[in-house]
Amino acid sequence: GPRRKLPLILFTLIKPLAKITSYVLGRGTRKAWKKLPTTQQRTYLEMLNANRGAFMCTGAFSLGGLYYLYESHKQTCPITGRQKFVALTPDQARRIGEANFTEIVNDAQGIIVPETDPVYTKIAKVANGILHANSDLRQIYDKTWTLTVIDAPVMNAFVLPSGNIFVFTGLLENCSNMDQVAAVLSHEIAHVVLGHVEEKLTRTSFLQMLLLVPMSLLWVLIPYDGIGFVTTWFFDSVADIMLELPFSRLMEVEADEVGLVLAAKACFDIREAPKFWGRMAQEEEPLSEELEFLSTHPASQNRQDNLQEKMASALQIRQDCGCPPLDYPAPRSSHSE
User: Model pTM?
Assistant: First the structure.
């Protein structure tokens, strides 16, 4: 049946609201308990013990509700075949993207590259090539795509779920050629095609709902506020390392692999993608691979190795799309075409 639409505010405010709620409920309960005389405390404990079956039923019912929420919002990604949990609708994601777009454009006033600028034209040619070659995908053709180039020495590009592409001119300075620019843009477009924003916001909201009761109990049981803040910080850090960060790295790898296919279909020299990450690996701090578990992104060396493993199948896709054959080895070229 149709999925139930959850309120948008649930996804945007759930994390701070869950933290405040657990703090207020837990701490308030602890303070109130301390003020009760011993006899009244004993009476409440006896009442809790006598009604533990009802409390267990309530807990089981709540868990059942969360399980139903999870099961009713599971879907299979049509591109990767991976099952994912998404409660945010495409329309809600678009509204989030549009709000962010307005804010970013307002903040970037004065440094937005005009559409007549040759730099804009080069990036637009790459972006349009990727989008046109992949217009068979619903996630591509159902959006109105825009490109905004920002003149700033930042090596970054990103795409909002509403289809708004942002590229900083600093990215071009860190790419050896436009095929590497295409690799980066394909990766960012892949995030949108795969619905990663919707999935990540859903996952974060669901985890916060699951942790609400345990974190409230933590504030009830810990005797001092100082210890409570340290303990909650510790639990938040563990939850990030064990749950949030591995999932974030999974999405980056998925976007790398799907982005490689998007670029292949657009006839770019996709052999430049692992080369780009190889150069990034040389510029990374030592031990970046060993400390990958603390990062939202995989180490660049691991990204290069994974893309190299996927290269043969991506090159076959490129050939099947009727693209011109590539020179071997891959030529070293500049930004000029």
Answer: 0.83
